[in-house]
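Assemble and predict.
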Amino acid sequence: MGINRREFIKIAGLSTLFGLSAKSAWELLRPGQVEAGLKALPKPLTAKRWAMVVDMRKLDDATAQRCIEVCHRIHNVPDFAHPVNPKDKVSPEEQIRYQVKWIWTDPFHNAFPGEQPDVMSERVHHMNFLLLCNHCNNPPCVRVCPTQATFQRADGVVMMDMHRCIGCRYCMAGCPFSARSFNWRDPRPYIKQTYPDYPTREPGMVEKCDFCAKLLAKGQLPACVVESKGALIFGDLAAENSPVREALKANFTIRRKTHLGTNPQVYYIV
Amino acid sequence: MADYKNEFGWFAERPQVEKKVYNKFPVIIGLLVFVILATSPLWINAGRDVPPPKPSLETPAIQQLAGKDKQCVLPTEQMRAYHMQLLIEWRDQVVRTGNRKWTSPGGKTYEPSLSNTCLGCHSNKAEFCDQCHNYVAVAPNCWGCHLDKPATAGKMAQAEVK
């Protein structure tokens, strides 16, 4: 004799109940001991709202290139134009398609579309603006991320949790500044010298500037700010006497695509 | 004779059905082939001696530690059983909260970092991590991004080949 429907449902219900309660019992008996003793860091750089000012009067092309170089070196950003092994060479079109950039330069009409007057100052016309993730106050990339891999920290830094990124690229569609890059290929064959203090990425991940969150935690300024020798100013927008506040008070600044309402936190002195 | 009931209704007589296996020969051969195929991994590996993994602790950093300090961030038994949960906790703590300091239940403070703290002592990934991972055939994907020591960077362990 088999079991009838009534008995089957009874047994199924009881097993479900048992399975569910077993899990919570396990969690009760083995609480997260490892969370017990978390303490704050001794001296990381902290802020209420990190922001950056780019002083284009001081930033020449060579300095900008050095900033890009140091950022891409310490974050293991691949350079598809220079593979480690010549057999991994990719065509110039593919170099553009696969390009990964955390910080880059563009002329005014690309960096600030719609802001260009009919007749523009010669000086600004030939300027190459140093562009990076704006760490917006109202970041569209965070809103569209389905896994919360991109999130905004309490100090305003828009962070990536690469472990959660599923590579859907919604954030790239959402970001109006093209600050995000997708890893179409394994980056490792295109990193001349891997920097041991930062991971590389895997194909299928999106990445971008994180205001050097790792260096901030160690009490250091972002690498590009150090490399720029004063052309980039970094600090706490909420602190009255921070260098960023001083620079913003003393100068007229512009920001990229403010009409979109993302409230970018990288300011440009032209 | 009493009435007999089956799923089609009441019958006066129990229907007489010949008890017989049709196509006896192919059915039994087919069953045999299925059983042998389904259990073939057992037969193939029967008698093969797979040595238990021996993760090596012979690294310069570990050997320099004095007798009492020579222990991991948690007791060995806990590390053996829960190192993956610990790594996930560390990962979430560092990336999500930005807190790069972790205090063990023993009161010591460490930087929660796979590449710096774990590999700082266990610099022999191939002889340490990969030993057990290969044995139990798990392929943690840590090393797709996180760098092990530059010396072994070019060599992919068996467990992580995709």
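Chain B touches chain A through 27 residues (CB under 8 Å).
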